Amino acid sequence: MTNWTNALLTPAIAACLLTAPAIAAGTTAWRCGNSYSDRPCEGGKPLAVDDARDAAQQRDANRATHEAQAAGKRMERDRLVQEKAALATRPTLIDSRRSASTTQKTETVADGASRKKKGKKEPDYFSARDPAATAKKKTEKAAKKSDKATARSGASG
Known about the structure:
This protein is mostly helical.
């Protein structure tokens, strides 16, 4: 043989020799606690994983697996078609938030120009308020404030 043939064959033979023990050891699996491994582990128990089925049983199992996979793919396609059809008939979401352009109130000046109004900015959400309750709270707060002021003036005098 020539040098280049030896250069090609030597790594190929070495690879075969190195993988032979791994192939032979491939028939043993190890149970390591609640997991399984192809390598021994501390406290692990070897398990024989030889396939004792005959060729007909293996063919039947493979056929059943392929049928289940095909059925799963078919069901996924059907689901996607149904979801796409449901998008057209679903209710439309109406966004109650105002856009950024309508949030700022403007007033028109005599010359036609517009300027921003001063004051509170409209919130991005709706909040219901009871005007009577708000007025009552303001009255109570004012009463407390005047009581504190009276107490301070009586204590300093």
